[in-house]
Specification:
Layout lengths: L1 H19 L6 E2 L5 E7 L8 E7 L6 E12 L3 E10 L10 E3 L4 E14 L12
Antiparallel strand pairs: 1-2, 2-3, 3-6, 4-5, 4-7
Length: 129
Amino acid sequence: MKIRLIVFCMVFLGAFQLSAQDWSSWTTASNRDFQYRWLPSAPSESLECYLQLRDLKRKPNETTFVSVLVDYRSAQAESTRDVITITGSKDEDQGPSILSPCVSVGGVHVKDIVRCESSGCDGNNWPWL
């Protein structure tokens, strides 16, 4: 019984420590319609940052495709381009983007935006194609 209690406590404390890692507060991107937040990986893990983006102007049943330039820091200042899809009820991308190696995110610059209704998108509105 004591072994079960010890194992349970170790698992609980490990899960508590993982959930204790906090996302940064939501920050306005270069376009005021979008906000982002980021989370560094645990110190014992590899150097990764998790990035999440949300669309403040997204309408229900709409999908947003946004092209972004992300400035981040690893051993030196770096940047990467990505196209992020935002759907769902929370107006956030469904899974965070992962930057690696990364220790912090400095900024998100919105380059192009396409918002589509549930009926689909017009193929002529895609600036990155």
